[in-house]
Structure formats: structure tokens, C-alpha cells
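Many introductory courses stop at the sequence. We go one step further.
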Amino acid sequence: MLERALDAQVPCGWVTGDEVYGGDRDLRLWLESRAQPFVLAVAKNEPLWWQGPHYVRADKIAQALPARAWRRLSAGAGAKGERLYDWALAPLWRPQITAEEQRFGHYLLVRRSLDEKREHAYYVVYAPGTKATRQTLVGVAGRRWEVETGFEATKGKCGLDQYEVRRWQGWYRHITLALHGSCRACHPAGAR
């Protein structure tokens, strides 16, 4: 479906997804081959090239980052206000031979909760160097939650959980109507 959407030149600034998609190296390489920026969640044990062509787990990279690498940023507004976390951004190693390859960077974005548990979430990033600011990447990572919230809200209301995807056009129409029905901007609380 993603291939058909990109081939049809549907505007797509970023691709984001959970660990199921982020853990799929073939998907990541395919997106890179299309120069499609992404922020994809990965598991803590995801092997990544860091500081050379050898694998290091995502959580081990995060543990090695100095205290100055972390910044408190909002991943967007949530039901209880701003979703504040500490975030770190570490460059990953990749051979980049051509000028086009050198325009893009590979990064590990790490989110750390502010509670006593200090839980971490990890994201692999592929983006042009000019777009790879921590604030931009945090915003992209935060957008995934909005989509998941929209899906959850529309499952019962609009039958989103009953829809079987067959063609891009039908899916696009159905999802647009389903998500529009739960959109807070279009339907503020109490105005329904």
C-alpha cells in the first residue's frame, strides 16, 4: 500500500510507524532507496551500526550517551497536556559514497520518560541533514500517537475495525471519512 501511495505521488513528508515496521530492515532499506525520510520505532535490542561498521544494540547506544546529549521536549499535546520527555539524538554510522547519500543521515532518536521508571523508546531515523533537527524528529515521532489515537477512536464509531483494505482509493476514502469523524479540530468537545 505504501509503495502504491508513493508511486501515485501522494504527498508524504515522513513515514513513521511502530516497532513492527521499524524492525523490518527491508522496509527501511526500501524507503532509503526512494529517499523517503522516516522515523520508525525499534526494539531496544535492534542492532545498529554506531561509530563504525559494527553492530551495537539501541539500548547500549542510549546508555553510552553523555548527560548533555539529552533535552526535554514536547512530543505534542496529549489529553493531559504536553507530552514531555527527555530526548537524545545520536548519529549512526553508514557508508555514504555518492553526493545524494551524503545529503541524508542515519540517527537513533531515544525517548526517556520523566517518571521514576525512566523507560526508553527507540527510533531509527533516516532524513536529510537539513531536516534532522531534534525538534522536528520528536514532532514526527509524536505524530504516530495521534494517528493511533484516531484509529482507536474510530474503530467502534465508524467501523474502521471492520474494513478490509482492497484498493488504495477505497482505503483512502474510508480512512479519511473515519478519521474526520473523530477529528478534534473539526468536532470540538461538546459540538457534536
